[in-house]
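Retro notes, structure queue

What went well: the backlog is down to a handful. What didn't: a couple of records were mislabeled last round, so from now on we paste the full input next to the output in the thread. Example, using Probable dual-specificity RNA methyltransferase RlmN from Bombiscardovia coagulans:
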Amino acid sequence: MPTIMNDDRVETGITPGAEQGGFRDVLAANHARRGKPPLHLVDMSMQERTEIAQRLGLPKFRVSQLANHYFNRLSTDTDTFSDFPLTMRQQAAEVFFPRLIEAVTQQVADNGMTIKTLWKLFDGARIESVLMRYPKRTTLCISSQVGCGMGCPFCATGQLGLTRNMSTGEILEQVRIAAAMVRDGQMAGGPGRLSNVVFMGMGEPMGNYKSVLSAIRQMSAQPPEGFGISARNITVSTVGVVPGIRKLIAEKIPVRLAVSLHAPSDTLRDELVPMNRRFNTEQVLDAAHDYYVASKRRVSIEYALMRGINDQAEHAHLLAKRLNHYGDNWVHVNPIPLNPIEGSPWTASEPEDERQFLNILHKAGIAATLRDTRGSDIDGACGQLAAKTTTKQQPQD
Ligand code: SF4
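Corresponding output:
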């Protein structure tokens, strides 16, 4: 019997709070038949790092050196650690820097300004991340779970079901490698700095809360404790797991919250986002507004526009009414044309419906921007690259 995720209990991938009630994660056939990823430096507390180092005969300051190489130099190649004893380098690499992710394919689009990587994890599972360069920022979209258990019928990742949660190490390795690529000028635009991270790849971050939170803390801490990416530039996206939003409020970390709403009414959202049967639109919007009040940061509302389903004037009017109920200027709506799954009945909106949707929101005083579909020519939306490859390669054990 699965247990609720809790600080002192084992995480199973079952979304917190969803143990009772009408919603359970949709699990992949091979769920829970995999071991845990090897422990990595970033999966360990300071005390664990020190104890392990001592067992290897290394004094405490060597742990700080390793963390400095990892977070400051973005390197796990101990052969280049000239300040580290030659005889200990290989052992340190094995114990603290096991290889957690390996690039399978990389696709480049938007004249080199978008790079999407499909990664293989230790157990053969596939996840993805997308690096996007803009004039004033460089953003990495990362995955936090293998597959996703939310079961949204229009989504490629949702069709996979949840295979397993990713470890903090697996999450942060996506960030480290991307940050090194940007620093070293491996994408168009020359050398730069990874400035933003969004949890909008595969998975529901609130379903893997503990690892996601540890990853956020280490992303935002200053080197040598972290990568030094401002928490204000990190976005956690949720489909509306209310207990997760409330826990995040209590953490008091100024990350941005994005809520994937996709529908303005419970009747429609019950169909599009099965989690709505557990936490309805009122509960989700209440929690989102509480997040705004506590953090003073505008909440993003993500809304995938699907032709004839949720993109008509009546939907825009109702959405505006529901959001304005809480007051002004607390949300920014990001409608995004759906990137449809091949052969699926759910398809992208007509451009005139997109324009009408935006106009209605604007006239109601709601900030809204049609979200850029970066990388859509390389299957760039929500888990699609991984979904295709994984489907071909099932089973992965
Ligand atoms: S839309 Fe998001 S929450 Fe829903 S199944 Fe896809 S990845 Fe999961």
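Agreed that this is the format going forward. Reviewer comment attached to the example: Confidence is low (pLDDT under 50) at residues 1-10, 377-381, 389-397.
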